[in-house]
Amino acid sequence: MITETAAERTVPAVPAAEEATEARGREEPAWPWKDAPIRTLVQRIHQLQAERAQGFRRLEEWPCCS
Q1: Considering the entire predicted model, what is its pTM?
Q2: More confident residue, 2 or 55
Q3: Cα dist. 47→28, 29, 34 in Å?
Q4: Which residues in 8-38 are b (16+ Cβ under 10 Å) and which e?
Q5: Domain limits of the chain?
Q6: How far does CA 45 lie from the centroid of its chain?
Q7: pLDDT above 80 (res 24)
């Protein structure tokens, strides 16, 4: 299991933003993770899942219906 803090520090949000901006002339939209290794993709999935779980925890703590 991966912790939130470990997930946050393992993978940058976008590995090569400058590559994505260079590909504007193509028909397909540029995806910065296209050529990333599988390990990096899996780490990114874990990071996104940790962020998602944290967001849901915050929603559960929100004092809305009192």
Answers
A1: 0.51
A2: 55
A3: 26, 23, 17
A4: eeebeeeeeeeebeeeeeeeeeeebeeebee
A5: 34-59
A6: 6
A7: no
